[in-house]
Specification:
243 residues; alpha+beta; 2 domains; three-stranded antiparallel β-sheet; two-stranded antiparallel sheet; elongated
Length: 243
């Protein structure tokens, strides 16, 4: 006689300390949005590899080649390639500067949450996010903070906004209303490593040519303001610039 098969015991499962479904949903949303941003960067890089972006859609083979080359690139490398190609294709320097800062910001925010440990929060509705680092400058450091799922969803929404900016860096202003509203705050900006420009926040005027330094651009801009808008109050503080 053969012995009856013994019933299989269920595999042991490690349960997380924090069983907050909203937290896991928010982290999932963050992960999905970040993957979508990476995909948008790769798509834009592929299209910019062609001088005429319209022909790229007809060259499916080149898309696969680009996917192979970019498949395992870290986010910072994708950012470097994207920004470099945008400069080569003469993207608006103010838009590009905003997007560059956006990409750094959301990458840091995403990494902060994804590479953390999670534990019970100090009060209802929160969880404790903790992380330790060991850097050459500061040595071993421990950091923790109280986080809500809403905090993580806000970062996911920010990533979605940056994805739209990446996709619309060459698009018309009406592509997504409100996408570039903060450009109006930038009056003096760099357009090349040693070339600067300005745009009047009152009338939209621009200099007849590029200037060789930030100081020269500031002097030229202030001269325009005195001549064209003598009644306008003097702007306080340093003008925002692209670096």
């Amino acid at each position: 006689m053969t012995e009856p098969d013994k019933p299989k015991r269920p595999r042991p499962k490690l349960e997380p300390k924090v069983r907050d479904q909203e937290l896991w949903q928010a982290l999932g949303q963050l992960t999905v949005c970040y993957a979508q941003l990476e995909d948008q960067l790769q798509f834009n890089i592929w299209t910019m590899l062609h001088k005429d972006g319209s022909t790229a859609l007809q060259e499916i083979d080149s898309q696969w080649v680009a996917r192979i080359v970019l498949a395992h690139q870290p986010f910072k490398s994708l950012t470097d390639i994207f920004c470099s190609l945008c400069k080569l294709r003469h993207a608006d320097p103010r838009r590009l500067e905003l997007v560059r800062k956006d990409l750094v910001r959301v990458s840091d925010a995403r990494n902060k949450y994804v590479h953390s440990h999670w534990d019970w929060g100090d009060k209802q509705g929160t969880v404790t996010r903790s992380r330790h680092t060991a850097r050459a400058k500061d040595g071993l450091e421990f950091k923790d903070e109280q986080v809500t799922p809403a905090d993580i969803r806000a970062v996911a929404d920010d990533i979605g906004f940056v994805t739209l900016r990446v996709g619309g860096v060459f698009g018309p202003g009406y592509y997504h209303p409100g996408l570039w509203d903060d450009i109006s705050k930038m009056t003096i900006f760099r357009v090349a490593p040693d070339r600067w420009a300005w745009e009047c926040s009152t009338c939209g005027a621009k200099p007849p040519g590029l200037l060789r330094s930030q100081a020269a651009a500031k002097t030229d801009y202030e001269a325009h303001r005195r001549e064209a808008h003598p009644e306008a109050p003097k702007q306080r503080g340093r003008p925002k610039k692209a670096t």
